[in-house]
Amino acid sequence: QVQLVESGGGVVQAGGSLRLSCAASGIIFDTYTMGWYRQAPGKQREWIVQITSGGTKNYADSVNGRFTISRDSAKKTVYLQMNSLKPDDTAVYYCNAGGIRGYWGQGTQVIVSS
Description:
By secondary structure, the chain is mainly beta. The protein is 0% helix and 52% strand. It is globular, with a radius of gyration of 13 Å. The termini are far apart.
């Protein structure tokens, strides 16, 4: 059974930082591209960042320079360090393995207050 379990969400003031974690089980972690998506209230879910099995990272323009993705193979965990947070970053953040047709976590709420 595949599980992606996110943690680390919360409420933070604008300009602050949060680190999200996603612990994976039930998959051969090292073979998967891992990513993060987010869904703001009233909006569609959007891709924001991914890291391939080889370590290549890609970022959406909206988060480039502020967010950093990383992965730890020993812990089967992917991280999202979010700095310089803005109110527009308020959303539910979802961990993903294998793209849109892959596996999803349950989501973790991030609220950035102004």
